[in-house]
Please model this.
Amino acid sequence: MKSKSSLLAAAAASAGCLILAAAPAGAAPYWQSVSTNSTWSCAPTVVHTARAGVGFQACLVRSALDNAQVVLVVVNNSPSAVTVSGTVTADFAAEAGCSSYTLAAGERRGCFGTTAHVPDCLFGAGYPDEQTYGGTVRLTVNGVADTTQSPRTDCVATA
Model:
């Protein structure tokens, strides 16, 4: 009986490891501090319908290696804390989400989407190709959801 229990425990542990190993890479499921630079392109700030003073925007970050991610940036300019959660969806990467967080008055945080390689253009060098990629962010404030679109980025031109 003891060996049967040990065998079941070992099998369960192995299955758990396989499930974790097979999971796709994703963004951190928590809100992080935000520091923008020249690789960031952000849409205009939108005031959330649930709370005046809470603004959010969708940003697209693209590296020199043609990797990109969409980021939901939120700032609380209201006089009191709010509860936020968010989802980031990109045309080129898996969906990511940030769980519930209490955003203090005056605080700014980001929910970072999954980083992925921007897809190659369909037609290659010398041919017009209008493929662009971006994403959508959804911010929930005190139970009310609003969405906005990120800027778009060009596909990767191939030789």
Notes: The chain has one domain: 26-154.
